[in-house]
Amino acid sequence: MTQDRNPSLNGYDVIVLGAGAAGLMCASVAGKRGRSVLLLEQARHPGEKIRISGGGRCNFTNLHTTPANFLSDNPRFCHSALSGYTQHDFIALVESYGIAYHEKARGQLFCDGSSRQIVDMLLAEYRKASAQLRLGARISAISKGESGFVVVTDQGEFRCRSLVVATGGPSIPKMGSSGFGYKIAEQFGLKIVPPRPALVPLTLDAALLAQLKDLSGVSVDAVVTCGKARFDEALLFTHRGLSGPAILQISSYWRESHDLLIDMAPQIDVLAELKRLRRDHPRQEMATGLAELLPKRLARRIADATAGPERVADFSDVLLAKVATEVKQWRVRPNGTEGYRTAEVTLGGVDTSALSSKTFESKSVQGLHFIGEVVDVTGHLGGFNFQWAWSSGHAAGRHV
Question: Which of 8, 3, 48 is nearest to 24 (CA)?
Fold first, then answer.
């Protein structure tokens, strides 16, 4: 895309691997400090995950970002970066480019137009910093000597004093993502917290799916609990299992053999409503009565599952309590996730105990930095993972 400033030497102060959210941010910050910077990206276009995010409108940050919105084996690791470059700092950058945006819900900020506006903004920033970008660059080897790092690619051999790994995780592999960053970390002796898909739909076994087959496409506001984690957002029944924001959120906490406890009418005292129904409309069927509280297909499914009498008048208090429990305390055990194919992010990654929380530099390998999704810090749904990219990229960019 651009030519190297010194093609005879191919030497830079900084090489950033990955032209995604974190990599673009890091390159522009470092370049503005006078560093010579090269971005290497294996895809044909930069910022592809940004482009497809948020239904094409990019949920670029969240107004309510705090360290509590992130998971990591070391929960305190994210504090420094998040305070050093906040959601308000990124919003100010967006506003400086005249990009219109809106709050969709719960502090989630989206472009009024296209996510391409965020990509274009980041590309404009790296150009201001005189950073270089090479697309479609396949890396075959990385080594370190006394003078720094050597990166061997199919476009040539490049040298640098500081190497920043911003290659992301293996989520959404159709975008070219992989676990390449983990291999680099392991090559230099850094530990990896085992990665797994996060913010991902959960699957159910065939027998349960057969029982729920008529519910595919039904959505309901719910409170979903797994252990101490609890989220109150929409739940969606699918032909594979469960999805929707509440399920994507809880998926980061769910583990195999764990149950989910689901309240499908969180603002309603269902037992009291059923007793009122029995008193005021005794001849009504249970499915009809439940349909006042739940989507019709879900109401029918719960009524059929409880196998009670035809009329509400004939339901005992015990049977009414059983129906209410089905609504308020549905216990279900997923059998897995849909995997990296549909996961929005990756849980786990480079162990933060090996990195400086201020500079993102390896404690054991001078000049080697890891930022963004490749690190063991994962945000909740709602713009938090982009904010982590901006914050971690900015922190590393200030110190490379």
Answer: 48
